[in-house]
Amino acid sequence: MRAKELGVAGLDPREQAIDTLGAFLRSMAEFALQQEQADADSFRKVAEAWAEHVLLAAPAPGVPSTVAPPLALAGGRRDWAGVRRFVHEYCRSSSTHAANVAGDLREVIWVFVRNFTQSFSTEEATDARLQEQLGRLERLVDASDVAQLKREVLDTVGTLTQELGERRERQRAQMATLGETVRALGDELASARRDGETDPLTRLFNRKALDAYVEESVRMFAAFRQDTCLLVIDVDHFKSINDASGHLVGDEVLRQVADALARVFMRKSDFVARYGGDEFAVVLREASLADAARLAERVLSRVRMLGISAGDRQVGVTVSIGAAALGREDDAKRWFERADRGLYAAKAAGRNAFAAGGDA
Description:
The protein is of the alpha+beta class. The chain is built from 10 helices and 7 strands.
């Protein structure tokens, strides 16, 4: 069998193909991936049975040997359609299982982030109570006439102050380590969830994916205070382009603007979405408002250079961009509204411009 698997010279090409397919089915049995609602041992038996059907003229899986004659007596006919269905179902089931595992892991991570944020808020409240206690003890020291009591209280103040400082240092170190881990996992999971969250025209993320990512970014900011910015982008005079040149040209404008955005925002953590007819949004993690402004200028320049044909003429395209850095008081709605105010300011300034949406 090993010689056949290696495809030795002299074998008939049909026999080589059959041997290769049989070896493939046996590899599926030996190295099977986890599948949706499928028992591993049962799958291995079925895969081995298909391999024997292909290689050894055994009946196809599910067909009793008393019903099906040996292949040698049946003219060597094999159930190729059954083999194709078996392989296709294996690929589909494995893919579905992998997607479900990734989705479950993503949910566990965000539940953990929410719970950790709540715990951290509780620690801040505890710090406030400790500070109040330290103040009372210091006042007691000033009011006391008993030397021994004063020394004991001073020792207590020193111990509490030292413990408070050490605890804060431990929290900062733990949060830094946790932040790097969660950000890395978040980036990997974000790159795996495009299925069902992609705009069909531009191949960017859609509104559903944007809403979820904005909410996640707000929670991440509450936990780790990393700089995060939101850009909202609108194609200038898009209705006029559609009216004058037709919707096919309008669609091409949207596709090329989307491509320009994808070429500017190339980090794995840069999240680019189409959330309306001619409206786009970009979420930038670990980026300041100054970083966002520099990137916005690159978008304006790249879009101005687009060449889009409409019959015998060229359609000029520009965009307006608003931005807002995520602030401590922001929820998803307020953050988006502030970025939108920047967009209105850019439109009011004559379009083809960038403006920030005010302080957080």
